[in-house]
């Protein structure tokens, strides 16, 4: 519902010529549907996610901002659901729900006593920290 600009913001200690060339191609491609835009920002002085976010937020002029990490796999309707909730409840910030997709991986121990330890710990930590 309205203009959409996607910022791909990253830092890396070394050049990634093939990846950066492809990102540049995608950025200048004017055939994005419905006037959507892609902006790619390499934050060369950054060594952290926080520095990347600070650099990106300086460039944002839209009233709504959504942040995804590169390893996030949002549901296809998640943006619409989040926007609807923000507008309906007249709030300034919402956080979408989070769920682990690989709870059966990251095994700890040997069969037959193995347990998907790491994914379960992260899953439990999220619900403990964010759903107070």
Q: How is this structure best described in words?
A:
- By secondary structure, the chain is of the alpha+beta class.
- It contains four helices and four strands.
- The chain is globular and about 55 Å long.
Biggest sheet: strand arrangement:
1-2
Shape: globular
Strand content: 5-15%
Characterize the largest beta sheet: strand count, sense, and whether it forms a barrel.
2 strands, parallel
Order of SSEs: EHEHHEEH
Instruction: Note poorly predicted spans.
Output: none
Assign a percent range to the helix content.
25-40%
Total beta strand runs = 4
Structural category is alpha+beta
Could you tell me the radius of gyration in angstroms? 19 Å
Tell me, rounded to a whole number, the average pLDDT.
82
**Count of discrete alpha- or pi-helical segments spanning 4 or more residues:** 4
């Amino acid at each position: 519902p309205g203009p959409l600009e996607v910022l791909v913001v990253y830092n890396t200690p070394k050049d990634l010529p093939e990846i950066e060339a492809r990102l540049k191609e995608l950025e200048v491609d004017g055939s994005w549907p419905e006037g959507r835009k892609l902006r790619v920002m390499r934050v060369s002085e950054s060594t952290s996610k926080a520095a990347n976010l600070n650099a990106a937020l300086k460039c944002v002029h839209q009233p709504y901002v959504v942040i995804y990490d590169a390893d996030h796999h949002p549901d296809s309707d998640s943006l619409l659901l989040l926007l609807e909730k923000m507008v309906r409840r007249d709030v300034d910030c919402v956080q979408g729900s989070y769920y682990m997709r690989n709870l059966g991986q990251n095994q700890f121990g040997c069969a037959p006593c193995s347990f998907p330890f790491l994914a379960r710990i992260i899953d439990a930590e999220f619900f403990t920290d964010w759903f107070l």
